[in-house]
Amino acid sequence: MALEHAILVSLLEQPGSGYELARRFERSIGYFWTASHQQIYRVLARMEADGRLLVREVEQQGRPDKKEYSVAGPGRAALAEWLHKPIEPESLRHDLAVKIRGAAFDDPAALVREVERHRQAHHERLAHYLAGEARDFTGPEAPAPLDPGQELQHVVLRGGIAYERMTIAWLDDVLDTLHRLAGPRPGPAA
Amino acid sequence: MALEHAILVSLLEQPGSGYELARRFERSIGYFWTASHQQIYRVLARMEADGRLLVREVEQQGRPDKKEYSVAGPGRAALAEWLHKPIEPESLRHDLAVKIRGAAFDDPAALVREVERHRQAHHERLAHYLAGEARDFTGPEAPAPLDPGQELQHVVLRGGIAYERMTIAWLDDVLDTLHRLAGPRPGPAA
DNA sequence: CAGGCCATGTAACTGGTTACATGATTAG
DNA sequence: CTAATCATGTAACCAGTTACATGGCCTG
């Protein structure tokens, strides 16, 4: 149930509406957790009903009104409790790896394009993360001595960067392997 | 719905019972997908009802009878269709990263033990993967020229190894960061 | 005789995805 | 006029987790 906790962390960093949270989940929080707006609204409603969040209706001009959520005492307590409770190290879940193994029962060469597409997507994510890192942490615009919250955000982002780099390198390995299997094909003209 | 496809791949590699599949999901397939026996039995029943799998009751001596599943024509067709259809590159979901960012609102030092525990778990997984690699692919017992299926299994395993190594390095980075934040603590005796 | 492995399942619940639904404002 | 952005939600479905349930065989 980490979505609740991710929301608590995000709202502690900065109160905001469901819509704003959904956008954050596409950016910074999305480095390590994703959620759709539908899911977010549902969970926000439940958390407010449970007394973990406070809502404030904010009128805006030129835009729809919004509900600004912030963390209530019990919410903060729930987060603290979770932080002190050990969690299971999680395992990978990678559809593409299923496909790669499945290629043995199909044409391996047919997978090249798909793998290249994924490589491209990870490359774009990496560029996006690096831009964010320069903007918020290492660039000339960034605050010189980072506060603890920023240091922690930075180390999480470094994890995202390391993940994308590793994945790109692995997909190159996969492409090499697929080419090797397709190149010297066992045909009659071998 | 990649569990169905993972099951199809595994049964194409080798027919087997639900119990055997559950064990494979703890080993080789578990490099990139996990599933509990409950889930597997449920999905197997559905796939058989849909005509994607065949069952054969196998009597055994000294053990309970088992149902051996194998892939039927429509199952193979369903796999082929999925293999040719693009899928979305997936994003990370990492609870521990939520905790790390949450530590800004708690005591960062209190997280050290938890991170060390995770580091340890990933270290063990890495050792397990490396042992499997030596046994099946690179060691003296391994078949000299690997067939395409084995090449593909190997490249997926290399992905798991790269992931574990990357994660361990990142967790070291996280530990450094936590120590830096806790070390020069902003107390009255600073 | 206790514990672990082999083997199969049901039931209830929780979390996540997809599809549907509405409606105002602003920029091109 | 059209598309994008802001803003909030409901409903149905699918996937995954947790708890419960059974029972024989083998090893120590």
UniProtKB/TrEMBL annotation, chains A, B:
SUPFAM superfamilies: Winged helix' DNA-binding domain. InterPro entries: Tscrpt_reg_PadR_C, Tscrpt_reg_PadR_N, WH-like_DNA-bd_sf, WH_DNA-bd_sf. Pfam families: PadR (PF03551), Vir_act_alpha_C (PF10400). Residues 92-178 form the Transcription regulator PadR C-terminal domain. Residues 7-81 form the Transcription regulator PadR N-terminal domain. This is PadR family transcriptional regulator. The lineage of its organism: Bacteria, Bacillati, Actinomycetota, Actinomycetes, Kitasatosporales. It comes from Streptomyces cavourensis.
